[in-house]
Amino acid sequence: MASSFGLMLRRGLSTSALRCDIIRTPIPTFGLTGCYAQALYSASVKSKTKENVAKDLVTIGGVFQSQKVADFMNDPFIKSDVKLGLLKEVATKAGMSNTSVNFFGVLAENNRLDLISDVTDIFARLMSAEKGEIPATVTTAQALDAKQKKEVETALAKFVNKNEKIILTEEVDPSLLGGMVVNIGDKYTDMKYIDMSTSSKIKTYLELIKQPV
């Protein structure tokens, strides 16, 4: 494929010296998938299609939920132009942006369509980071009620800057017995881990008891 986007992406993945024209992401990305996501983010910023691309990624991800489609797209023995033909057909019906279509074409050409799900997750996180949103996970032995959730959100807000907002995800783990475990941030940022669970305290006490007198 000879699109300028494809050429830019291939250059960006092949040498760091040619990445000076790629727009920096709001949070760092790593690895091969991160490189693809960064190149897509840069292209979408330049073409002013970020919101459209984010929706297109979700749409194409839904298509890939079909095992038959996923197997077809990830089959290395099927030519990339055949895969791209199917992708373009889906993209046309869904009204996807040219930036997205070009990106899917590059993935097909490089037999990297299996990365779409991960790229989608990273791209969504980049969009969230732009808004100052910080993911946080609170794990408790029992589900929080509305009042408790509000109290947790208020407490966690003190860990981030004033222009940032905590996006809270709740998880339940009965093995904690009581208290909570808090993770602020994600694998793309400096994650803060706070263990205030009863089970961790019991473990500490047991270790102290086992020590020789």
Properties at a glance:
213 residues; alpha+beta; four-stranded mixed β-sheet; 9 helices; 4 strands
Walkthrough of the structure:
The structure is a single chain. By secondary structure, the chain is of the alpha+beta class. 54% of the residues lie in helices and 12% in strands. It has nine helices and four strands. A hairpin with a 7-residue loop joins strand 3 and strand 4 (192-195). Helix 1 (4-14) crosses helix 6 and helix 3 (50-63) packs antiparallel against helix 7 (116-130). The protein is elongated.
Which regions are unreliable across 5 or more consecutive residues at pLDDT < 50? 11-18
The major pleated sheet works out as:
4 strands, mixed
Q: Rg, please?
A: 22 Å
Q: Classify the beta-strand content into a percent band.
A: 5-15%
Question: How would you state the average pLDDT, rounded?
Answer: 84
Taking strands numbered 1, 2, ... along the chain, how are they ordered across the largest sheet?
2-1-3-4
Count every helix, treating DSSP H or I runs of 4 or more residues as helices. Answer: 9
Structural class: alpha+beta
Morphology call: elongated
Helix % is: 40-55%
Provide the succession of SSEs: HHHHHHHEHEEEH
Q: N- to C-terminal separation?
A: 73 Å
Please provide the count of β strands: 4
Quick summary:
The chain is α+β, with helices and mostly antiparallel strands and 213 residues long.
Set out the fold topology.
Elements: H1 4-14, H2 31-46, H3 50-63, H4 67-74, H5 80-94, H6 98-109, H7 116-130, E1 133-140, H8 146-156, E2 165-172, E3 180-184, E4 192-195, H9 198-210
Parallel strand pairs: 1-2
Antiparallel strand pairs: 1-3, 3-4
Helix pairs in contact: 1-2, 1-6, 2-7, 3-7, 5-6
